[in-house]
Amino acid sequence: QHWNRRPAAAAAAAAVVPAAVELAALRSEMVALRNDVSRNSLDLSLERADRCRALSDVSRITDDVARAAAATIQRAERKFVSELAADRDRDSSRRSFSAETSPPPS
User: Fold this and answer.
1) What would the pLDDT profile of 19-76 be if each residue is shown by its tens digit?
2) How many helices (DSSP H) and strands (DSSP E) are in the chain?
3) Nearest to 81, CA basis, from 92, 73, 91
4) Distance CA 18, CA 6 (A)
5) What is this structure's pTM?
């Protein structure tokens, strides 16, 4: 029976070599996968930071536009009020001038 052990041991050793090769290949693939996940995580983090910066910029620009629009409306209102007051003054002056220069009723 001694002669039977050698072929079994040789077969077991032959089976261990491919398993070790497969294990090394799996470890290598696992490292590559881990590196891919790390790279994707970093890329996602950078994208998220860019999106947050862009949203902040949009918010700031929106505020600037709203302030500029409000200032323009206020200037237009002041101009309108000023022009309206000037028109009233002219009308008032015309009425008083007319009253002073018109002949008395007979």
Assistant:
1) 788 889 999 999 999 999 999 999 999 999 999 999 999 999 999 999 999 999 999 9
2) 1, 0
3) 73
4) 19
5) 0.50
Residues 36 and 80: their CA atoms lie apart, in Å, by 65
Which amino acid does the sequence have at 81?
Answer: V
Per-residue DSSP letter, 102: S
Three-class secondary structure of residue 28 per DSSP:
helix
Q: Can you state the percent helix, strand and coil of the chain, rounding each to 5?
A: 95, 0, 5
Distance (Å) of CA 77 to CA 2, 56, 73: 111, 32, 6
Count Cβ neighbours within 10 Å for each residue of 33-52 and write b for 16 or more, e otherwise: eeeeeeeeeeeeeeeeeeee
CA angle, 49 as apex, 46 and 51 as ends, to 5°?
Answer: 110
